[in-house]
Amino acid sequence: MAEARGTMTDGGGAEDVRARVDSLNEAASSLLKTDNTQALELVRTAARLADTHGYTSGLARAQLLEGRALVGQGDSDQARVCLERALAAFRAMGDLAEQGAALESLGRLYLQIGEMPLAEQHLEAALTLAREQGDSATEATVLNLLAGVYHRNGAYTRSLDYLHQSLRLHREASNWPGEANLSCNIGVLYISMGQYPEALAHLMRAYALLQDKVQDEKTKGFVLLNIGHLYLNLNDYKNAISFLEESLRIARLREDRLREALATLNIGTAWAQARQDQKAETAFRQALALFKEVHSRQGEASALDGLGGILAMRQDWQAAAEAHAEAVRIAQEIEDLEVELDALLHLGRVEAELGELSAALTTLQRALALAEQAEHKKSVSESHRALSQVYRRAGEFEQALHHYELYHDAERTLFNEESDKKTRELSTRFEVERARHVAEVERVQREAAESARAQAEALVRERTQELEQAQVEIVTRLAVAAEYRDDLTGEHTYRVGQFSALIAQELGLPPEDVALLRIAARLHDVGKIGIPDAILLKPGKFTPEEFERMKAHTLIGARILSGGQSRLLRMAEEIALSHHERWDGTGYPLGKYGPSIPLTGRIVAVADVFDALTSTRPYKKPWSREAALEELRRGAGTQFDPEVVAASLKVLGRPDFGYLMRQETPLSPPTLRVIHASDAWPPNIAPAS
Question: What DSSP assignment string belongs to 86-120?
Fold first, then answer.
């Protein structure tokens, strides 16, 4: 009896079967981006039919599509099996085009699950085939995916080069979806490089393309995720959460478990920034479970590192060390330099808290080597600072001084290279946004005179709200840039905002005023952008002339913020001008005294001094919290409003307030760094289609 499975004949029946298999495969391919479940049903039917009738190329094509659908569902193990079978079959047939497609799909899968060496191997082979065949569309896609690999390996320059090559190919083909994806990914890379204005420009370009020319909810979810990620880097957790929750909604609607995991992980980081440790822990544990479900090792490492940060915040040092150590182990296993670097820095700080100083030094030296290898200047600076602190604990003061000097040198290098550039860019953008605001309001008001007034006035309010929000975002970044010149971490402005809000809440201010003050207080020193580095960064005492120049930052800040129409910007202007006034009238710039000083300025004055006293500066060691609180008591009635001091002592002296202190606490939970197989990268992640 002949076997049912054999070689197809040339009869009409065979042609019908071939046509049916091809039709099923084509239908499945069209469904991959919208319904992976339905695509799987069709392609498995095609595979059974092709296998039964010996249609080899049809079977291989079905296996390729089945692998892609399984990738979309997060079943990486079965996807790998299908894709490897398809690649072997195409090689046996000598089909170079389909070999390239299978290599690309395997590279995409390995990128998604964090196996970088295998991802690079398969994608480089796919790139060679695409160039040999003159297939520019495939070349553009593979260049994008390879950029994701090199991004994760810390090779930022090579990654950026590949992204721009890919972007050029998409633009030459007028491929709007491809351009949107590439703009998103370039924004992600600039976030990793700390170049936030460039990151914002590219992410907004991607978003504009998605709004005007491309209807793609999946890519829009990626862009929203990355905008949220950018806000996390700016320590603006409120705006971050709003973008991340919208991205999470899209992922759940699409039943996309991997994207759900990515959004959940970033939301955990946002809650950690907000000091909502229980919410953050819940999010990190949910993300960890989701990453395990979709077999993303890179995601597991990031979730564990974030969880370790929360445990450290609670001073559960042993559990934190275990979480960070597991994150390091996974990152080393998959050769993910960036995740390993973050986790090593966090682990070293926790080991020092446990008293394991020798282990901490070994860990931090490894972090320093990785940071130097990746030319990640901010991490180099953080590594030297952490090493200086651990050597000081170990009593090795010469080494402590050596690393502190290197930390200071690295910090100054960053100032010289980036601060002036960021300040100019953000100052210009703020002025442009202000001009746009005025022009837009005038235009809408003219429309109000020409049409139904009620409708037009509603539109004015809507446009004003949108433009004021954009203006606030720009000026907040301007404040971060100003602070960056003499506080590399950018933590000072964030803490002053937090402290001020807590004090205001204790004083009984309305919730809406507390919320505004939390943001407006961060702009208190925006005028520093107008102070020369020679004065601003001087380690010793100022001369009388230098002090007069330094005092001018209050007037400069008020001038920058003047003319704002929102309550927030008016409050920020008030704070910038008055936060160095004294209760007894001997402050500056106007010499106001007592209740004539705005309450917001009186509150920020206390918060600013408290944080300055308890923070490390090049010219002083940090004070203890108790010593700083005693200094506030001594200043009540002379430097500070006595009622504000009384409220401050209550909130700043709380037993559970210590985690907000900066001195020698573990680093904050990491922003997400996980590579995903998509043509648009999620936050510090990589590509898919």
Answer: HHHHHHHHT-HHHHHHHHHHHHHHHHHHT-HHHHH
Q: What is the pLDDT of residues 1-33, one digit of tens each?
A: 333 333 443 344 678 888 999 989 888 888 886
Domain around 617? 414-660
CATH number for 77: 1.25.40
* Burial class for 526, CB neighbours closer than 10 Å (0-12, 13-18, 19+): buried
Instruction: Using alpha carbons, select from 345, 381, 233 the residue that is nearest to residue 667.
Output: 345
Task: Give 55: exposed, middle or buried? Use CB within 10 Å, 0-12, 13-18, 19+.
Answer: buried
Quickly state the pLDDT bin for 638 (edges 50, 70, 90): very high
Is residue 2 situated within a structural domain? no
Structurally, how many domains does the chain consist of? 2
Q: What is the pTM of this model?
A: 0.50
Encode pLDDT of 342-398 as tens digits: 899 999 999 999 999 999 999 999 999 988 887 777 788 889 999 999 999 999 999
Residue 462 pLDDT: 61
Contact of 430 with 475, CB cutoff 8 Å = yes
CATH of the domain at 593: 1.10.3210.10
Within a domain: 78: yes
- Please report which residue ranges of 508-641 form alpha helices under DSSP H: 511-520, 533-536, 544-551, 553-561, 567-578, 599-614, 625-635
Q: Extract the tokens encoding 141.
A: 């896609």
